[in-house]
Design goal:
The complex is a heterodimer.
Chain A: E1 43-44, E2 54-60, E3 63-68, E4 80-83, E5 88-94, E6 103-106, E7 115-119, E8 129-134, E9 140-144, E10 153-159, E11 165-173, E12 182-185, E13 188-191, E14 193-196, E15 207-216, E16 219-226, E17 233-239, E18 244-250, E19 260-267, E20 270-275, E21 287-290, E22 294-301, E23 313-315, E24 324-327, E25 336-339, E26 349-355, E27 360-364, E28 372-378
Parallel strand pairs in A: 1-14, 2-5, 4-10, 11-18, 19-22, 21-28
Antiparallel strand pairs in A: 2-3, 5-8, 6-7, 6-9, 9-10, 11-15, 12-13, 12-16, 14-15, 16-17, 19-20, 22-26, 24-25, 24-27, 27-28
Chain B: H1 7-13, E1 16-20, E2 23-27, E3 34-37, H2 50-55, E4 75-76, E5 90-96, E6 108-110, E7 116-121, E8 125-130, E9 135-141, E10 160-162, E11 165-170, E12 174-179, E13 185-190, E14 205-207, E15 210-213, E16 225-230, E17 236-241, E18 265-267, E19 272-277, E20 298-303, E21 309-314, E22 330-337, E23 340-348, E24 354-358, E25 364-367, E26 391-392, E27 406-408, E28 413-419, E29 423-427, E30 441-444, E31 459-464, E32 471-477, E33 489-492, E34 496-500, E35 505-510, E36 516-521, E37 531-535, E38 540-547, E39 561-568
Parallel strand pairs in B: 4-33
Antiparallel strand pairs in B: 1-2, 3-9, 5-39, 6-7, 7-8, 8-9, 10-11, 11-12, 12-13, 14-15, 15-16, 16-17, 18-19, 19-20, 20-21, 22-23, 23-24, 24-25, 26-29, 27-28, 28-31, 29-30, 31-32, 33-34, 34-35, 35-36, 37-38, 38-39
The chains are: A mainly beta, B mainly beta.
């Protein structure tokens, strides 16, 4: 692992956080994962400046969506925790092209006695960004958007933490392109959001993907980074006396020569094993895999665009059928490791190659209820190939 | 009319920033609901009974429910305005409602001397209006609590009426009943916890003393339902979840959504209601909810008395594109289908087609010819980390979003509004977190790349034959600012169809040919659905429409106008 502290103006792509051992447990199921938060406008890159906090928000009529730092990321109308006596900055972007502004008020934003203490200009264009610098006052209670006070409104809280640091994690792929990924620092969870510096530029070369964690005390933190189709990387990072930035490079998972090829047919409500013999003629056969090895699943769509039937229940045909692999747990927590495209033609075949991972627990056709089988993964001892 | 002295209007305005010596201050904004009475004595105390409700579709003097009648035809029997004379239609007045928030509502009109109009707009503001004079008789603003989660603007689309009361849904997933003569609150019932993400924006509908309402929050991982309340007391009579347990596996049903966020359609003959069922949750990550996710993105029929399930039809099984069914279902009776008579439930959906269902069984009789374009339909969407983005037409606003169609008894056609604009989508893993959005991905609006096949028109307005599914005519509508067309249409007994565009043009069409016969320009978009009534004392037919930008994307400038047009008989 190499990482190093960088100056704010020069985030090079030299440092590479190499993949190493996987920490047990799926990153994606720990912490509060994110939610819809933007309409994919490019956001400005932001960092804390001085002792105060820099917040990044997206304004849409559904509510203010938090982007960074981590404690507001993917939260709707997040609580803004402000450090007493320090200068703060709110950088917000118009996410939907409706008319928005940002105000901080004493009292309730919709109460009788409130007073607007800080306000930004009004933005009407999607993607436009503005900022507000201010030092918190005790009277500050809520923030809101004047044209949409009922839905775009959240609380302000004053805090007085001990000395704290900021850790910024940049995530990119092997070509140095920014990559949206999940980032965990200890039990804090965030996404690396695509951002551009200093403001959204025309040229995409200035784009980066960064996750910001602040209010960190000095110490050692476990860090874990993962996104679909890429290796999960884990390591330990030390925060000691100053803010830090590091760059993580995620390698795509590139299957090698398959150790084994499983052949199956997808029928109504079930997979039927074809070969090898260990799964032949079995319904929803269990696939026994070894961690780190490459496998292929070749399957034939025997039902085309299936149209379910039921008493007093009528359906248009399903969009198609696919092969997906997910983790264990309640359905709501299934993390998807493999998801193929839909195929809708009867007799069509699809070949899906993947590298087995410990977390893999089930495979399914996601558009049917019962076409679902188990995966057992042996070996690995917590090791996966890291690069 | 001194609306600036109207406390309810000021409350609804919520926040008016006023500059003072050392910065700004806020005025208005209610801690509690506010009623302001102006001239309540003018309201004739004639209670609205069931007979009036059942017959309102045949009574040119009334428009007593959101959809114009239980079948949701949005058709007036008033026949003063005709294709021949519509060019003489004139603006009678513009009433500033004074709040300037979401303007997606359709007013209702109770006949009398004078008639009384009940008009609503966001956020949860209602007025009683003398529609002859354009004067406000009382106004009311509900106080939505802090923390209401609304995906898509602070809409309120209209009122319902029975006896001496008038009703609207509240943004915090409730229903409020007001004394319609005084504007004072009678009861409020919460149908679900707004902190979990539930809300309510549509007009309820009332039959036989029971008020029917639905559920919203399909972007927050809620569980959709339809509810029936006693209109007198507000007491809950039944509440039926939309998602049958045997169609969902594991924990997926808990946050599977399937909300019902527009007004149900009532079939008095069969004793059932029909309602659209919206997207499954999370919107874009389908793995966590394997199966068809029945009956999301579809239509269901429930028994009016018991709430028991009759049938369901799904237009986008296992949806990952946010192709809700939303718009009110239109019940067309006695359609001649190959020599036999069939009652048809027409559902115009975000998928970009209109589905004609047999009202008896829910079986698909015919899917219409396409209304908007279909580009990359039913393709799997990529993960956020994948470069490959696919532009989809229709995008997440449809097709037909919530905009109510109308049925014109003169032409026998159904008129629908479909958006036609490329968006691209991606999925990613998201853990459910109560009260926070639960999309399982995201959308790009507009799409990163526009497909070559796209015709560059953002909206289609079309006439569909419910018997055959034939698209009889279609007008493509462009918008320089690329705004979506956000209101529904009105049909008249003389074969006219009125519709307001995102460009601020209020249009009267020849319903047969699609020819534009009359236009009136406003300076802001129209996002509401018009209505009409005849006043026998004035001997005039009126057409009313709310004017102002609204919606969840690129809504355009706000407005606060109730525009009323008229023609002498």
């Amino acid at each position: 692992m190499t990482n190093e502290q960088r100056s704010r103006v020069d985030v090079s792509r030299r440092g590479v956080l190499k993949g190493t051992a996987t920490i047990a447990g799926a990153a994606a199921t720990a912490g509060r994962a994110g939610a819809y938060r933007d309409l994919d406008v490019t956001l400005p890159a932001t960092q804390n400046d001085g002792e105060g906090r820099t917040f990044q928000l997206l304004g849409i009529v559904g509510g203010w969506m938090g982007i960074a730092p981590h404690d507001v990321d993917a939260v709707s109308n997040p609580t803004l925790r402000l450090i007493e006596g320090e200068q703060h900055e709110i950088i917000w972007t118009n996410g939907d092209g409706a008319t928005h502004n940002f105000n901080i008020t004493s009292g309730s934003a919709v109460g009788d006695n409130g007073e607007v203490l800080e306000a930004t200009e009004t933005l009407t264009e999607q993607g436009a960004t503005t900022s507000l610098e201010f030092t918190p006052q005790e009277e500050m209670e809520e923030y809101f958007c004047q044209p949409h006070p009922a839905q775009m409104r959240g609380p302000v809280e004053l805090i007085s933490p001990d000395e704290v640091r900021e850790l910024v994690v940049h995530v990119e792929d092997e070509n140095g392109e920014p990559l949206g990924a999940e980032v965990l620092v200890g039990d804090r969870h965030s996404f690396s959001n695509i951002a551009a510096r200093p403001t959204p530029p025309e040229e995409t070369s200035d784009e980066q993907a960064m996750a910001r964690f602040d209010l960190l005390e000095d110490g050692e933190y476990d860090i874990e980074i993962w996104t679909y189709g890429h290796e999960r990387i884990t390591d330990t990072v030390t925060v000691d006396g100053s803010d830090r930035e590091l760059v993580a490079t995620l390698s795509p998972i590139e299957p090698g020569e398959p150790t084994e090829t499983y052949s199956m047919r997808l029928e109504e409500g079930q997979w039927v094993g074809q070969s090898p013999d260990s799964i032949a003629d079995e319904t929803n056969p269990t696939l026994e895999l070894e961690a780190g090895e490459t496998y292929a699943v070749e399957w034939e769509n025997a039902i085309g665009r299936h149209q379910p039937e039921g008493e007093n229940r009528h359906y248009e045909p399903l969009p198609g059928h696919n092969f997906a692999i997910a983790s264990n747990g309640e359905t709501n927590q299934w993390d998807t490791y493999v998801r193929s495209d839909f195929t809708a033609d009867e007799g069509a075949t699809q070949s899906v190659e993947f590298v087995a991972k410990e977390e893999m627990a089930i495979y399914l056709d996601q558009s049917q209820l019962d076409a679902l089988g188990e995966i057992t993964v042996s070996g690995g001892d917590g090791e996966t190939t890291g690069d | 009319m001194a609306l600036r002295n109207d406390r309810a209007v000021q409350a609804a305005r919520d926040i008016e920033l006023q500059e003072i010596e050392d910065g700004y201050t806020l005025v208005g904004g209610p801690e509690e609901a506010v009623t302001e009475q102006h001239d309540t004595d003018r309201i004739p105390e004639v209670d609205v009974d069931q007979e009036m409700l059942s017959n309102t579709g045949d009574d040119p003097e009334s428009w007593l429910m959101y959809g114009g009648n239980y079948e949701q035809h949005r058709a007036t029997p008033a026949d003063v305005i005709t294709p021949e004379n519509v060019s003489d239609l004139e603006l009678e007045y513009e009433l500033s409602v004074g709040t300037g928030s979401s303007m997606e509502g359709t007013p209702i009109v109770v006949p009398g001397d004078p008639p009384v109009m009940y008009q609503t707009n966001g956020p949860n503001h209602m007025k009683a209006i003398d529609p002859r004079e354009g004067e406000v008789l009382w106004s009311y603003t509900y106080a939505p609590p802090i923390g209401v989660e609304l995906c898509c603007d602070d809409n309120n689309r209209g009122a319902a009426v029975l006896g001496d009361k008038v009703y609207m849904t509240t943004l915090d997933s409730g229903v409020i009943a007001l004394d319609r003569y005084t504007g004072e609150e009678v009861w409020h019932t919460s149908t679900a916890d707004h902190e979990e993400g539930y809300s309510a924006t549509w007009a309820p509908v009332i039959r036989d003393g029971t008020l029917y309402t639905g559920s919203a929050g399909g972007e927050y991982g809620v569980l959709g339902f339809v509810a029936a309340l006693d209109a007198e007391s507000g007491e809950m009579q039944w509440q039926t979840d939309t998602l049958p347990e045997d169609e969902w596996v594991g924990a997926s049903r808990e946050h599977g959504c399937g909300t019902t966020w527009m007004t149900p359609t009532i079939d008095e003959e069969r004793g059932v209601l029909y309602t659209a069922v919206a997207n499954p949750g999370p919107d874009f990550d389908g793995t966590v909810r394997p199966g068809p996710n029945f009956p999301t993105c579809g239509t269901i029929s429930l028994d009016l008395e018991s709430g028991e399930w009759e049938w369901g039809f799904q237009s986008s099984p296992h949806d990952v594109w946010d192709y809700d069914a939303v718009a009110p279902r239109v019940l067309v009776r006695d359609v001649d289908v190959e020599g036999e008579s069939m009652d048809i439930v027409a559902g115009s959906d975000k998928t970009g087609w209109v589905y004609m269902l047999d009202a008896e069984s829910g079986q698909l009789h015919e899917r219409s010819e396409e209304i908007c374009q279909h580009i990359n339909m039913w393709e799997m969407i990529p993960h956020i980390s994948e470069d490959e983005r696919i532009p989809f037409v229709p995008g997440a606003p449809g097709g037909n979003d919530w905009q109510p169609p109308s049925y014109n008894p003169e032409t026998g056609l159904v008129y629908v509004i479909h958006q036609n604009y490329p968006q691209d989508l991606y999925w990613r893993y998201e853990e459910f977190s109560e009260g926070n959005p639960y999309w399982g991905g995201n959308l790009d609006d507009p799409a990163s790349e526009f497909p070559d096949e796209w015709n560059e028109s953002i909206t289609a307005f079309a006439a569909v034959d419910p018997a055959t599914g034939e698209r009889v005519w279609r007008e493509w509508i462009e918008s320089e600012e690329e705004r979506y067309m956000w209101g529904g249409s009105l049909s008249t007994a003389t074969g006219l169809v009125f519709n307001g565009t995102q460009n601020g043009t209020f249009v009267a069409y020849d319903g047969e040919s699609g020819e534009r016969l009359w236009e009136h320009e406003f300076d802001v978009p129209i996002s509401a659905s018009p209505m009409s009534w005849y006043d026998p004392d004035e001997e005039k037919q009126y057409v009313a429409v709310q004017v102002g930008g609204s919606g969840w994307l690129r809504q355009g400038p706000r407005g606060d106008t109730l525009a009323v047009f008229s023609m002498d008989a």
